[in-house]
Amino acid sequence: METLAGDIERLAARAPALFARSDGAGSSAAPSSSLPAQLDALIARLEAARSSGSSSTPSSAELASAVAALQTTAAARTKEYYNALSRASKTLERRLASQPPLDASIAEPALFTARAPQEALLRTVWSHLLRAGEREAAQTLLQEAGFTAPSHADFQALSHILRALNSGDLKPAIAWATEHAEWLSARGSLLEFALHRSACLRLALGAAVTSTAPPAAPAEEWSDARSTLGSDDAHDGFSPTQRAMLYASEHLAAFHGTHLHEIQRLLTFILYIPPDSPVSLEMLHIQVPAPYRSFLDAQAMHAPFLAPLLEAEWCAKEGVPREAPLRLAVEIGAGGALNRIAKVRAVMKQSGNEWSQADELPVEIPLPPHLRFHSTFACPVSKEQGTEENPPMLMACGHVVAQESLTRISKGGSRVKCPYCPSESAVSMATRVYF
């Protein structure tokens, strides 16, 4: 897989080569004028030559030379890309050809013959299409499959809010958070406060920052906030810092009980911003003391931080998983889980054994960190994973074993000797642990 990943990376590097100059070896170099830009310049020269009879215009030989040079450049860059595409395709073909066919016993052939499993599969695919914004494809699936759509979350509304948030428009996100303020507060969510904090910072910094945006932050993150937050005619004569203070007094007062310290830091930061003359971001980094420079970090204050938080809260409110189940199933299966299970099944078949636990996998499947949704417990005595029926139990000495192991160790009595230390305690003192 590393070879394939390397070829795909090289292919991705060659794609911009159609629009940026590369060296003779085919590797990308410092970008120059793109092919579209060169073509536009050449068209402009041709139109100028046709409309003007002046001797200052390029000669026909010069124009012909320019056209030939552009053709040569375009052909070379296109060849680089298609060579990389061919190598990646061949690597993928070799990789697929080297994979043994999957054992038919891994999947039950009759699994989706009944109506209920078919509808479950259709719901999964249909929901995935909706989450991806493919509403037309989702509707076509319903019509062709004769499937009645169940009630579902309005992912289009979420997409609209996220698009607006990523473009710098906070109004839809703030409106959603305000509508569900009570629910967010009960969850202890930071979302509503973080949105108002971002709005306050935009008002304070929007008209002040005149040069480069902060590192790793798009310039629009720091654009003038009046277009995205609305303009109060009564405050048009106020400076950006005054407008920010007024916004804070109106919208952040409700958070004094939970975020008072952060509000105090925010207002102190605003005091360091010059109220009249615009100042560059570089100068702000010099003028603002170090404890308050975190407010200049767009990654921690604006869309890069707010969008994932909003998506998580929205999915929790709608009762849907944050990650699309179909995408996760494909990612885990294609990431090595299916091949690992196939190898274990083949080994067990050769040894004459069969896996009898229908609700467990025959082998541990390592998952990347972003797919580890909850902690798990494996009993150190029985080596079995904890379940609702066999939960982890904390003994008085501090060691944890599964409930079934605790029962076996106590031999049905009222006291138990810890298998890992000399302590002895009553079975009734053991407490269930939640990981």
UniProtKB/TrEMBL annotation:
Family membership: Belongs to the RMD5/GID2 family.
One GO process term, biological-process aspect: proteasome-mediated ubiquitin-dependent protein catabolic process
Superkingdom per UniProt: Eukaryota
Keyword Zinc: yes
Primary location: cytoplasm
Protein name in the entry: GID complex catalytic subunit 2
Entry GO CC: cytoplasm; GID complex; nucleus
Chain intervals for the UniProt region annotation (Disordered): 215-234
Molecular function terms from GO: ubiquitin protein ligase activity; zinc ion binding
Chain intervals annotated as zinc finger (RING-Gid-type): 379-421
Species whose genome carries this gene: Tilletiopsis washingtonensis
